[in-house]
Amino acid sequence: MSKGIILNKERNAILTPFLTSNAGEVTFLLLPGGSYSTCDISEVEPAAKLFNSKGYNCFALQYSVGKHYKWPYPLEDYETAIQYLYDHSGDYGITPTLIVVIGFSAGGHLAAMAASDERYKPYAAAVLYGATNASTIDYNAPGAPDANDAVNENTCPCFIASSRNDWIVPVNNTMNFMAALNKYDIDYEAHIYGYSMHGFNIGADFGAKPPLFNTHCGNWVNDFLAWLGELTSGQYVSIRERCEYNDAHSESLSSMNSNKVIFDSPEAASLIKKRFPIQYALYLATRKKVGSFTDGVSFKNVLQLLKAKEETIEKINKALSEIKNGAVK
Q1: Which of 18, 27, 181, 275 is the one with CA 20 to 30 A from 95?
Q2: What are the DSSP calls for 13-46, one per residue?
Q3: How far apart are CA 7 and CA 122, in angstroms?
Q4: pLDDT tens, 76-131?
Q5: Per-domain boundaries in the chain
Q6: In 3-state terms, what secondary structure has residue 215?
Q7: Does domain 5-240 have CATH number 3.40.50.880?
């Protein structure tokens, strides 16, 4: 742990680096919990050291709490921290577009708000037993907005972990946040443990052990890193690739539209039949076998199931892109 960087002396907002010599491009900004009454960097120090060991530089933010609390001060502190990381990216080897925010409890509320921040949106956000409901956080943080209401079509991908029997931050905080992400087709992965008290942090290594905590509540760390790795590598399959999303939003056609939308278009159906006769024949054979079930599946999914080459799918996408999506209202 390096010496803290004072971001706002009056509000005691401090950014503390946790650096490692083998860091990759992704940087983590950790937000401790404390109900906006306290904010202790020691809470996230075990997580920072664990992430350091796995090749990630971390910074922990002590944001405005207690007598210094007033919304939106904590969010302003987050934005100041991100701007500092932008301005000093060369000093720390930071890739500004690959900053990930990780928040615990009240810090999870702040992370969820950051995920929808217009100016300083992170690459991704991890919301850990986060108090996203205004009704949950209001007792200690009057004026703090409902993070679920902040979700919009530009919210960044989110990773969520919580416990079903958490009585401090009830699981409906997670459920409501997931519902908001679903509404806008935002990518996320969620892990709701059957039981564990609030504040399981990184699990057993933090002292979160049975009987109050389950034996695997720390598994979110590796699950989160695997999820993040798929995002950064381009391997992740976005929810926005599903045909329902593309049928409703894409201006032009692609193989990611549903078979119904593609083959209900005389122009698109004719194009596929003439320029891609093998793939057209495979589609017809599939439809003959499973019937109208294919209507709600993307043409890309059918082709992938039939082991079509990605090069062929890309050629189909390029050809279809010249045709307007008639399903968009």
Answers
A1: 181
A2: EEEEEE--TT--S-EEEEE--STTT---GGGTHH
A3: 19
A4: 999 999 999 999 999 999 999 999 999 999 999 999 999 999 899 999 999 999 99
A5: 5-240, 242-320
A6: coil
A7: no
